[in-house]
């Protein structure tokens, strides 16, 4: 269960900023900066060698963390639009060679498996792109023979998912420019990434510590998680990958355990056993007091806007389930009235709460590219995890995630 133990008021912006010793909230707000950094690399012609190539296959190699999550999302969201197969692998396949495009994603520059994959891909003559930090064995394996898109923005390692997602998107959009307009709204990759970065900046402002919870979707999400056993779920391959990444981020950022699964697994799971109420106590004795109270389970379901109508009926079978959608316009929450525990956290308010006067200016949610929706949701859950860390008293915790890198 995610407990609220710090006594921090999530609507007290000064207290949140002062107590965020690890820089979690600043790091979570850097999603737009990470996309913009990749756009800058594209404008510097880093990816010119892959422009317009027609590989036999695109191989996304990643072993864990944000790199693996980004590879899963890219394969699920972008792969179906390509006229070549996109293969997701934890190691370089034996058949990969000079006819293929290999992208190696990860956060550990010392990972021998990743450095081996890079070195072998280059040796076989495959066009190779590396998103791992340009140092250590991986950097040495890449040398001057592989194209590199290392992180340029210092963020917590738990927040590198968006860097890898931006890099994978840039590589595939550069290689297949005819698909770029579908993903980014323009055939200019750098301009499209920059525009998406602006939208992520808008989401970060909407989720910022200075905005009250009733019009702040990240704070509403954090408050909805407190006091519950949390399960993140997705109804397809892309959103299930987001769910797993959100669960990992919550553990890395707030030290809180949760589950990240597919919606099918949630529907098949048995209900939480009922137990007596009451707060946990160090004096509790099962033989005298009976079974300890069971924390209620709350399920947060990631879904694409286009799938909302199909997902909602399935959620009727999920007790205390909440749907997470990316708002079509982050500023729409300025005009929302919400309950932090509302059943729809798409814009921080219940369905239809946004001012109807904005309907002509905001893009229809189902017209927003799915890759953008995934990126927006990532900014939201990363910020929400920071608020959970603050509320549960773990924002000052150090450790391997405690430095911006």
Automatic annotation (TrEMBL):
GO terms for biological process: carbohydrate derivative metabolic process. GO terms for molecular function: carbohydrate derivative binding. SUPFAM superfamilies: SIS domain. Residues 328-360 are annotated as: Disordered. This is TobH protein. It comes from Tomitella fengzijianii.
């Amino acid at each position: 269960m995610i407990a609220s133990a710090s006594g921090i008021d999530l609507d007290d912006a000064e207290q949140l900023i002062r107590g965020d010793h690890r820089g979690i909230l600043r790091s979570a707000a850097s999603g737009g900066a990470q996309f913009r950094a990749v756009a800058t690399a594209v404008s510097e012609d880093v990816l010119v060698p892959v422009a317009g190539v027609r590989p036999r296959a695109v191989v996304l190699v990643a072993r864990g963390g944000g790199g693996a999550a980004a590879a899963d999302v890219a394969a699920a969201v972008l792969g179906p639009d390509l006229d070549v197969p996109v293969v997701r692998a934890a190691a370089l396949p034996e058949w990969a060679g000079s006819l293929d495009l290999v992208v190696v994603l990860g956060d550990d520059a010392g990972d021998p498996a990743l450095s081996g994959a890079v070195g072998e891909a280059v040796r076989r003559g495959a066009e190779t792109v590396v998103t791992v930090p340009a140092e250590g064995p991986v950097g040495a394996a890449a040398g001057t023979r592989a194209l590199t898109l290392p992180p340029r923005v210092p963020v917590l390692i738990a927040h590198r998912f968006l860097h890898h997602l931006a890099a994978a998107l840039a590589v595939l959009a550069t290689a297949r420019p005819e698909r770029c307009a579908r993903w980014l709204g323009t055939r200019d990759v750098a301009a499209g990434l920059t525009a998406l970065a602006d939208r992520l900046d808008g989401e970060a402002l909407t989720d910022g510590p200075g905005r009250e919870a009733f019009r702040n979707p990240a704070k509403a999400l954090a408050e909805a998680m407190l006091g519950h056993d949390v399960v993140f779920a997705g109804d397809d391959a892309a959103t299930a990958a987001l769910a797993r990444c959100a669960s990992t981020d919550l553990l890395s950022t707030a030290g809180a355990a949760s589950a990240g699964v597919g919606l099918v697994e949630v529907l098949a799971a048995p209900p939480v056993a009922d137990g007596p109420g009451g707060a946990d106590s160090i004096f509790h004795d099962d033989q005298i007091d009976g079974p300890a109270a069971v924390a209620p389970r709350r399920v947060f379901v990631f879904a694409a806007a286009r799938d909302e109508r199909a997902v909602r009926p399935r959620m009727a079978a999920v007790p205390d389930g909440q749907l997470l959608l990316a708002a079509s316009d982050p500023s729409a929450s300025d005009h929302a009235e919400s309950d932090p525990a509302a059943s729809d956290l798409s814009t921080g308010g219940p369905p239809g709460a946004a001012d109807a006067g904005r309907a002509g200016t905001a893009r229809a949610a189902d017209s927003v590219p799915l890759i953008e929706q995934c990126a927006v949701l990532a900014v939201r859950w990363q910020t929400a995890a920071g608020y959970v860390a603050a509320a549960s008293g773990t924002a000052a915790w150090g450790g391997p995630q405690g430095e911006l890198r």
